[in-house]
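Researcher: Please generate the 3D structure of the following complex. Treat every line as part of one assembly.
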Amino acid sequence: MMLKKIKPFITRVLLLYIAVFVCCNLLTDNQKIKNAYHVRTLNASIPKPYHYHHLLSILEHNDENINPRTLNQINFYYKKAIEFRPDMTAAWGLLGATYAALGQHQKALEAYNHVSKKYPDWFWAHYNAGIIYHKEKKYDLAAQSLTLAMQANEKSTILKTLHSPMIYGPVLKTAGITGPKELQNELLIAKQNANALLLKCYLTLNQTPRAVQHINLGKKIDPKRETFYNYALAQIALKNNKGDQAVKIAQKILVQNPYQIDTLVMMKEILNRVDKKKAAAVIQAEIDKSKKLGRLTFSEQLARISLKPY
Amino acid sequence: MSHKQIKSSRHIFLFMIVLFCIWCAVFYTFITFWAPLQRDAFSYFYHIQYFVTGLSKGTFPFWSHLWEYGLPNDFFLRRFNDLNPLYLVLVLFYKIGLPFPPVYMVFQILYFFIGTVFFFLLAKKIFKNNVLAYIAFSALLFSSMGTQIFNSFIILVFTPMTGFFYFLVSFTEKTKKQHLIGAVFCLMILLSTYIPFYFLTIFLTFLISFIIVYWHKFCLILKKYLAFIVKHKLLSLICIFLIIASLTPGVLMLLSGKSELALAVRHGAVSDTNVLQVTEQSVSAGGIVLPFIVENMFTNFLHISLDRIYIPAFIIICFFAGIFNRLKRQHIFWALWIVLIYMIGLNNATPVYPFLYKHVFFFKLFRNSIFFTWLGLLPLIILFGTSLARQIIFYDSEDQKKKIYHIISTTLGFFTFIFFLTSIDNVNWLLFICSILIFLLLISCILKKLHPHKPIFLTLFSLLIIIPALNPYLHLSQNYQRKQRINYPPLNLDFSYKRSIDINDKLVTYVATRSVNRMYAHITPSIFKNYANHLIFIYDNTQLITPGFNNFSAIEKSMQNFSNIAFVESKDTNNRLINPSAPANANVITEDSKEFSVIDFSPNYITFTTDFPSEKFIIYTDSYHKDWKAYINGQETEILRSNLSFKGVLAPAGQNTITLRYINPQLMGLKIILWIIFICTLGYYIHCCRRKRHDA
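Model: Done. Output below.
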């Protein structure tokens, strides 16, 4: 009798759902399902070669045609990889790269700082963070990160990059890096860039002794930027009221590189100071000529130093 | 049928056509080849194109000479089931000059539409209501079932399977001849397809669920069937014969699995010598992963792919809104059937699949349980949801208290759904709005403010099916759209001295003859490719080898340098050719000449004339197979396995006509008989339908 009374209340579809849920849970190995869910999610969102091409074109070649959809797709993959494997540091690094490409610098920095904490010896995290800080004109933080990058262990960085086939493998393949030699070359170029940026930071922060240190280092490791380092030396001389020294260095630069804008600007300033307006006007004409030729200032060149996703 | 019902039927038919047109517009990118066919869809397209091109030229292609250096085409014919008479429509249109790709696409879409119409008719039989059948039809049309046209072969199983169940239910209702013939015809198509095991599994789980839930009804139905069999003994016997006949190709294929084919990727590490057998599958590799399906049904559309499952929100809402509906036997039946299929689809994540793999032979012969999601779970969830929708929409009670209770329970269920939706990240706002509108639609029906048979309900319902579906499908089109239309050129089946298909340097192939598989295993792919790019080689020297010969580097070196020595598997010393004064390199034939000329060619044979000054050995870089025969001037001679994988024949000096022909009389005879059987069965079904209409 009681059963008849309560039957209309309990024979509901909800009961069926509960029975199905309990039955399925009892019969299934939830750990296997969880693992399969991770595998399936990552496989479904794994970036394709064109994703990496686009990421590299933005980061390495400063391509301004950003396709947010493509970048968000890569971003999603690394987010999921980190969600399932928080210890996968390489994924954090690439997550930072995608945020940087999307212009979300704060999130990029968080990702790179996460990597740096786990691997203090990881060059790329410090380097990329330094570039972002530099772009945001936070020169003290940029100097800190870039200094750590310069101090990072090369061998360790190369090994970690090459031993991450799932995460870094496709990126390296897209970038045409097939082995340790090419990666070492990339590392050298990055270190040269880091040194140049460090110098810029110290000059802006008026830390002359450190600046001179990096000028000397730069002349050793980066002969192609000799002009830049000489210019920096001239700048320091000018600041220390050693105008003659500055002029000498500037003349030396202009002999080798007549259209170097920054040096021409410096020369014009010096000439204006000593009231040699006619000569200054001649220099101005040379500056205008250089600009027409499309020459870049050192600041413009440094601003083009781009992140590396690896 | 009342006037109201007839009018309703006309409305619904019109709505179905309109909905189908909208579906075509949504998938415009794929239909017009702005997005490429993926995975199995592409290989099925290719193999059907090969079949249709061959037939249009008057040749039934028993051998596939363009795939993996040649192999028996029956493997591919089984995959799409060449016995289905509807493919003749493709042949007809191709023959009159229409390009194959659009004809094929239209065929696939119409085949899918036929499947959805069968689904509509099945739902109509089950629910005895046009509107509910329309709900089921639209939900299926805008679910991810249709996306499989562009991704896999599932539609080729889905349509006959739905047809089978429709005819089975119709026959159970009224034991009429045309229903039986219809069911038998659909069953024949399913059983003669390459992997009928998906259907078999679904049918067996259906049977088990039905017997458990409707035991008494099952007994009554059996009695009904027996009565029919007794009354129509001859017809019943013929039907049994037809079913057995349709099993023959599959059985023969199973037996051939121990001989000439190699399926390295599929066969994997299975110890059994039958190459059709697969390893015990894990849930990670091809199983049903429910958390992945549920999570991605409402979000993450940025990454949506053709592998994603999508069920219209209306059905899911009905599951939640119907949570406090009275439990009926039908609900238990749907739930049990769904759970059984789901358990099997979980592979090694449950004890069910391993048990079946061990004890039921056909579980060793198929993988990719994920296909059960489309073939089994998707239609069943829609039918289950529709049955819950029936209780909500067609709620009929004058008792106010009961009505209020019904509204409250529906509302509670709906808010449970909203709560579930809010727990998922990044759900589009459009889905929330459409869900609320769906809820209002359901409440309007309960309150009798909106009558389900009226066109306004059908219009609103259709919009609430289409609009939420636009978001995922537009993302899908974006993810696959290319900058240029995809070009699928016509297949050229004419002979060419150079291979036209670009074979990549791959290490393993999906299917090939054992000979070619050996080649992949032992010869560097680039050397192999470079050598086999040319189809005809003439050698002055042969070295006889035994089947156990394993100096593969010598063969590789010979191939690499095009050396004038062929490695021939033979014990007969008459096949030994030694000509020390011959040039170092083999003669690679690049065009017809007096000495060698191909005079006739089709996928099944090649005939060439030779006029050599001395005896030569000819290698045709098409895979060696025991069913190929050689004839020199009409006299049968031996074809020899040469350079590990290819066909070779010793050509005497002087003028000769040599034919190499693929002959499998058993297969050819069976093909003809089965074609006649299939066409006659379809013809008889059409005849029965016309008679019924005439009688009516």
